[in-house]
Design the sequence.
């Protein structure tokens, strides 16, 4: 197909060139987000290594752009590679055992499926192949426009793909929806040129996922694949077991029957002697067991905070005590830390009730849904919301003694005195930590006081509290676990080979080394934005989606400015480094003190101004690229490396990523200094 660089090439499918590029870009991002969600729901590995799908996607899309000049259109066969992935995961769904003592993954489960060392590389390679085909579709459409126009419509499509996936998440749509969307889009893109093999592969994927969706008890929340199963026992009567992403999560049964099985639920009330229970806050309310117990213990009002609307809905449907129907209960579908930062209420009892999300925030490799709930700053928020008679308590299956000591030590550092510690060591290090706002508010049982000096004398570890800038509760020390380093090394090795094999000699991208560096730095800026907004407004799916959309809109705004005005690059670069410096100097702790409207305005300016300036710099450089697809591929490969550098946050915290991004942008300026005048330079020159 001849390339005109004007968007007037002959129509391939049912869409004109502009709509073809928009649809291809939307499909590319939509499938990427769908794969992160669906694969993580069926492979427990990926619930904790979601970055693997992201990195494979960047690699594949970049390879697709490099292939865009070839005669054979691999994009027409995208459903075939996706069928391989879906079939593999369907046949070999996996759970892994949390055997590391340095990084806790989740409650102990029996591993299923193939070994991790087989599953992860296979998934990475197949996802990269699938995204190569989708990237090639976009790359071919890309070539029909000038560089800047192509980038413009690509971003418009990406915004559309993000919004479509957000809508599907909001509707809690079953998994078969995403391959159906893919098939419809491919028909629009190719019309009769879509091979029968791709039709059959798409149909097979839909059938597999329909079978998954109609399985008994299966439903979807914005975060998980949720599976429920009903039981009846002589001891507790009817009850319901809930699994999320294949991991046991909650059991729904009568509150008093639960106390017979798990006495920890009643322990906070035994420690809060003579507490009036005028107002109780339950964070991690789930299906309502903790809420029901608070009501049975005489609570006059209960604020129940649960992040997952589907889990709370199951409580409405299944909980025999019907706590959510009680007029004393106010339900908030929200992130617990965000709720604490917004409410002015005082509580006689605050419970952190098993808030263990078992999953990561999409797009941020190490941020779990509950990460900001257990930092020292969050415990301080809880302290500030206690009444003078108030008691704070948390309980969970902590799995490791050092984790119990970290949390107890965090509580002690905030409250100024040692908490009560009730341990149930026979059951996966089950423990209850309770403390009063004043020492007399909580009465500990004999021998049930956490004693720092005795623990140190016994040679046990007390890791330092996690913090908002380093919210990695389940990471014992500030380090990058060996498993992550191994995975990163394998990714980089496979990627280098794939780029050489698919893209041929690297010299076609040699002239775009500065764009490669910009891709690295941009991914770090995006990660910083996601984590900042998660802290300020909650780690909810909606906040995450809005940040993605905001980043893309900032990019689109930069493109429109570049199209309409000639902005000298040196002032753009100066503005970029100034905005990075301001973002570094203003701490998130100060933003948290602002009223929510001002907090939002400040966060938008601080997060998106560097992104806008960075993309002014990128677009002013990209528009003169002689080979836009190779230039864009170089930028995507850089983003993949940036995704690997994101793991530096485990060592340094998230704020430090701004310095890393600034250093990389400085490298991009130095490497591309010959372009500062704005004169076009041929690739490889």
Sequence:
């Amino acid at each position: 197909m001849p390339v005109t660089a004007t968007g007037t090439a002959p129509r391939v499918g049912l869409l004109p060139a502009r709509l073809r590029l928009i649809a291809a870009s939307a499909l590319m991002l939509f499938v990427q987000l769908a794969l992160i969600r669906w694969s993580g729901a069926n492979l427990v590995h990926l619930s904790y290594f979601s970055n693997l799908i992201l990195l494979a996607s960047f690699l594949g899309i970049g390879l697709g752009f490099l292939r865009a000049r070839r005669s054979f259109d691999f994009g027409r066969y995208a459903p075939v590679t996706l069928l391989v992935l879906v079939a593999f995961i369907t046949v070999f769904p996996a759970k892994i055992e949390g055997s590391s003592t340095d990084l806790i993954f989740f409650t102990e489960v029996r591993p299923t499926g193939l070994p991790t060392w087989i599953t992860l590389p296979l998934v990475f390679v197949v996802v990269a192949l699938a995204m190569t085909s989708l990237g090639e579709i976009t790359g071919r459409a890309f070539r029909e426009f000038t560089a800047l126009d192509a980038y413009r419509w690509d971003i418009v499509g990406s915004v559309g793909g993000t919004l479509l996936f957000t809508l599907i998440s909001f509707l809690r749509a079953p998994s078969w929806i995403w391959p159906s969307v893919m098939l419809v889009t491919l028909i629009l893109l190719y019309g009769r040129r879509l091979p029968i093999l791709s039709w059959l592969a798409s149909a097979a994927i839909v059938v597999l996922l329909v079978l998954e969706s109609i399985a008994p008890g299966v439903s979807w929340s914005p975060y998980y694949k949720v599976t429920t199963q009903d039981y009846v026992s002589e001891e507790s009567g009817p009850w319901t077991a809930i699994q999320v992403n294949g991991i046991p999560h909650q059991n729904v049964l009568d509150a008093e029957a639960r106390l017979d099985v798990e006495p920890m639920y009643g322990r906070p009330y035994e420690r809060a002697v003579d507490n009036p229970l005028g107002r109780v806050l339950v964070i991690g309310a789930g299906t309502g067991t903790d809420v029901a117990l608070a009501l049975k213990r005489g609570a006059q009002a209960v604020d129940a905070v649960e992040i997952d609307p589907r889990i709370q809905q199951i409580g409405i449907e299944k909980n025999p005590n019907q706590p959510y129907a009680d007029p004393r209960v106010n339900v908030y579908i929200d992130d617990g830390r965000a709720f604490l930062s917004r409410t002015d209420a005082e509580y006689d009892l605050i419970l952190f009730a098993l808030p263990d999300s078992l999953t990561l925030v999409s797009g941020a490799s190490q941020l779990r849904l509950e990460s900001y709930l257990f930092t020292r700053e969050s415990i301080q928020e809880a302290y500030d919301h206690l009444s003078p008679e108030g008691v704070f308590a948390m309980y969970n299956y902590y799995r490791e003694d050092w984790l119990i000591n970290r949390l107890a030590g965090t509580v002690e550092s905030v409250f100024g005195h040692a908490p009560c510690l009730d341990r149930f060591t026979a059951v996966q290090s089950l423990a209850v930590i309770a403390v009063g706002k004043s020492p007399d508010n909580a009465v500990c049982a004999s021998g049930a006081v956490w004693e720092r000096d005795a623990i140190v004398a016994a040679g046990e570890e007390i890791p330092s509290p996690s913090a908002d800038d380093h919210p990695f509760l389940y990471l014992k020390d500030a380090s990058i676990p060996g498993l992550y380093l191994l995975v990163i090394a394998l990714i980089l090795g496979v990627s280098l080979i794939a780029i050489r094999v698919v893209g041929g000699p690297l010299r076609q991208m040699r002239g775009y080394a500065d764009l490669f560096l910009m891709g690295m730095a941009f991914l770090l800026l995006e990660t910083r934005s996601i984590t900042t907004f998660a802290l300020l407004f909650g780690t909810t799916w909606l906040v995450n989606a809005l940040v993605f959309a905001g980043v893309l809109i900032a990019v689109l705004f930069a493109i429109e400015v570049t199209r309409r005005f000639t902005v000298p690059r040196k002032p753009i670069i100066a503005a970029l480094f100034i905005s990075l410096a301001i973002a570094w100097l203003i701490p998130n702790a100060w933003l948290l003190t602002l009223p929510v409207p001002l907090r939002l305005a400040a966060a938008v300016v601080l997060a998106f101004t560097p992104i806008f300036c960075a993309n002014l710099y990128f677009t002013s450089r990209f528009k003169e690229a002689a080979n836009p697809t190779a230039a864009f591929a170089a930028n995507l490969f850089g983003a993949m490396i940036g995704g690997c550098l994101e793991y530096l946050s485990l060592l340094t915290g998230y704020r430090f990523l701004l310095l890393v991004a600034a250093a990389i942008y400085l490298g991009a300026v130095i490497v591309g200094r010959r372009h500062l005048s704005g004169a076009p330079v041929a690739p490889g020159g």
Notes: The first strand starts at residue 218 and ends at 220. The mean pLDDT is 88. The radius of gyration is 26 Å.
